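Example S7 (structure tokens).
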């Protein structure tokens, strides 16, 4: 049985497009041998800030897991759905292999999924080809996926991340989207079987 997350499928898609990345790079990622970068740790901490924020909270300068974030420069209101950290597991069979799709969305409201991103560059186009939003719309049976992009800047010699702007970017379900997810998952499973069989869990 193989457990597959949207993050893994998106990382695999990016790996396929990167001529400089090696098979070992992908194996190390899947087996969690690659240590997280500071940016990744900061992103996880910022997620926790938004997850624990309550309705009508005014976020200015907040600290989480050793990171400090300054949101006082934002000149807009951010509406965060009350249903946060929604999890799902979906069983299926692909290429004769039992598969469990595993998804955790940052927030969900009726038929829309939200994902928060802390980024140094709010580039909407970089998310167009992402498998993440396709996976989540397919697995959660929703029609709209919105990335909440928080552009940040960390001044030299300072220990604070300045949140400079907020940009929501939305994508929508389309015909044959599920087939695209299935095709990428099928390719990923073949890679796992050929190069990292220890990723497959035995019953």
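Recovered sequence:
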């Amino acid at each position: 049985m193989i457990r597959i997350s949207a993050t893994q499928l998106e990382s695999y898609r990016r790996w396929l497009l990167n001529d400089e990345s090696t098979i070992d790079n992908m194996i190390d990622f899947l087996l969690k041998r690659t240590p997280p970068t500071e940016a990744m740790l900061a992103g996880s901490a910022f997620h926790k800030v938004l997850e624990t924020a309550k309705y009508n909270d005014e976020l200015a300068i907040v600290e989480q897991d050793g990171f400090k974030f300054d949101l006082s420069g934002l000149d807009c209101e951010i509406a965060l759905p009350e249903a946060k950290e929604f999890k799902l597991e979906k069983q299926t069979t692909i290429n004769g292999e039992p598969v469990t799709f595993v998804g955790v969305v940052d927030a969900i409201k009726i038929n829309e999924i939200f994902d928060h991103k802390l980024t140094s560059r709010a580039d909407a186009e970089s998310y167009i080809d992402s498998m993440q939003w396709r996976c989540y719309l397919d697995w959660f049976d929703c029609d709209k996926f919105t990335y909440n992009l928080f552009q940040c800047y960390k001044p030299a010699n300072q220990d604070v991340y300045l949140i400079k702007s907020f940009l929501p970017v939305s994508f929508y379900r389309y015909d044959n989207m599920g087939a695209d997810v299935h095709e990428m998952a099928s390719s990923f499973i073949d890679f796992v079987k050929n190069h990292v069989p220890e990723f497959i869990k035995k019953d």
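Notes on this example. The mean pLDDT is 90.
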